[in-house]
Amino acid sequence: MSLKTIRWGAGIAGVLGVGLALLFHWQVFFWVPTEASMGIVQRIFYVHVPAAWVGFFAFFIVALCSAVYLWLGEERLDIAAVSAAEGGILFTTIVLISGPLWAKLAWGTWWTWEPRLTLTLLLWFIYVGYFLVRSSSENERTGRRLAAVVGIVGALNIPLIHMSVLWFRSLHPQPVVLRTDGPSLHPDMLVTLMTALASFTLVFLAIFLVRYGAERLERELRAHDSARESGKGVPV
Amino acid sequence: MIRYVQQVEALVRKDLLLELRTWDRLSAMGAFAVLVAVLFHYAVDRTLIHPRELAAGLIWLTIVFGGILGLGRTFALEEEDGAIQGILTSPVPKDAVFLAKVTGNFVLLGLLVLLILFVFGLFFQVGLGGNPFALFGVLSLGVLGFTALGTLYSGVTVRSRMGETLLPVLVFPLLVPMVVFGVRGTSLLFAGVSGAEVEGSLRILGSFSLVALLAGAFLFRFVVED
Questions:
Q1: B98 in reach of chain A (CB within 8 A)
Q2: Residue A94 and residue A88: Cα distance in Å, rounded?
Q3: B169: which of A16, A126, A158, B108 lies 20 to 30 Å off by Cα?
């Protein structure tokens, strides 16, 4: 991908994503019907759920890109993994902020040891570890490889973590969209949720592309500098 | 295959011999375990709850904190004097090096667990429950997965400027399955249930260990290669 394509892609995804964000906020505040049992507070759902989906999706990209990076050693895959991880941190942070806000009103407590909540918190820490390993390694190449290992092991552990926290029986609302007998929520609610999901996915894509381009430029610049310092001339 | 086992065995013997000569890691872990038990005595208000009722959880936490001390030093000695390069350039497969390190660490942590059980029995009158075999099954399966993860990540942190401080940050989020089912199985067994009732916990601890071992054996080469 050329830098120009990346810039255009990021621009288009960003504008569309922010546009849809405005639209879904209008839907959330003025259009969508209020949920019967939880009342107005249920509207946090339209931010919380898509952010969780995008955050988990980002972690999936990190694990995938890390695995293929270790296999092929292609540096662009490492740049993709780190860019996705930054997006993932952002969206899981949104989940971890919006969740307790809702829980305080719906369950009467900021935090419970509820499976999906716990899993998200642990995922957030696995991401943090991923960045700490990357930044504290003795040299950059090693850091990339070690971070990839951390990304993969973290992802492998997710099903096990999920199973074990599930054992501590769940308070969390059951899935309303991804069910075998079709979505169970009001069609207007589904439309709002899908708008929010599209918006968050596009914003994630924009952030991902911007970070990808910036990281690539930074590395090219550094390679350029070190080549000049070592007197080998400028690589073409 | 036989050659592979011999290679692993030689490496394990070297590590255990090194440990026997110095007692560095074992004495640190052992002292830690005893001192933590002493601190637990003062941390738990005996008029409200007897430490025996918390024993399963306290034992697992002592294993985790004491174990991480020892696991963090897995590669420290070899990294300091560069001996790790010798092992890595020898024709031994990297997974054999990993499995040897896990075996050596597992022996150390096994001794730590025995010491912890003894200390908790002595200080808090915690027995072994009615089914010691099932208890050792739960403890060893959990500790095996912990050892595999800790060994792999110790290879990661030894090459980081943050060193061993980073190890718990990386390992603890992954230990939730072990703590949940380890504590559950252990407290059931302390309460005197039969071995069949902890079968579920044993299975999950087993799959946790298997995933950790396989992932470690496969990924270790990327941790050490340069």
A1: no
A2: 10
A3: B108
| CA distances to A142, B96, B145, B187 from B208, in Å | 27, 20, 6, 19
In sequence order, which ranges of B90-198 are alpha helices (DSSP H)? 94-124, 132-157, 166-171, 176-190
CB spacing of B174 vs A126 below 8 angstroms? yes
Number of other CB atoms surrounding residue B33 within 10 Å: 24
The whole-angstrom distance between A169's CA and the closest CA on chain B is 12
**Count of the separate structural domains present in chain B:** 1
Contacts for B49 with CB less than 8 Å, ≥ 6 apart? none
CB contact under 8 A, A146 and B223: yes
pTM for the full model?
Answer: 0.88
Domain of residue B95: give its range: 2-224
Counted residue by residue, chain A has a size of: 236
**What pLDDT is stored for residue A190 in this prediction?**
84
Q: Which residues between 160 and 189 in chain B have a beta carbon less than 8 angstroms from any beta carbon of chain A? A: 160-162, 166, 169-170, 172-174, 176-177, 180-181, 184
Smallest Cα–Cα separation from A141: which of A223, A207, A212?
A223
C-alpha A9/C-alpha A126 separation (Å) is 29
Q: In chain A, where are the structural domains located?
A: 3-172+192-227
Cα separation, B43 vs B51, whole angstroms = 10
ipTM of the assembly?
0.89
Chain-centroid distance, C-alpha B48? 32
Contact B129, B143 (CB under 8 A): no
DSSP reduced 3-state for A28: helix
Q: How far apart are CA A193 and CA A48, in angstroms?
A: 10
CA–chain centroid gap for A79, Å, is 15
**A92-133 per-position pLDDT tens digit:** 999 999 888 888 888 888 887 777 788 889 889 998 999 999
CB A20 within 8 A of CB A195: yes
Please report how many Cα atoms fall inside a 13 Å half-sphere around the Cα of residue B224, on the Cβ side.
27
| Alpha carbons A112 and A100: distance in angstroms, whole number | 9
A157–B152 CB contact, under 8 Å: no
Closest residue in A to B183 (Cα) is: A164
Altogether, the residues listed in chain B come to a count of 226
Task: Give the closest residue to A202 by CA, choosing from A13, A12, A25.
Answer: A13
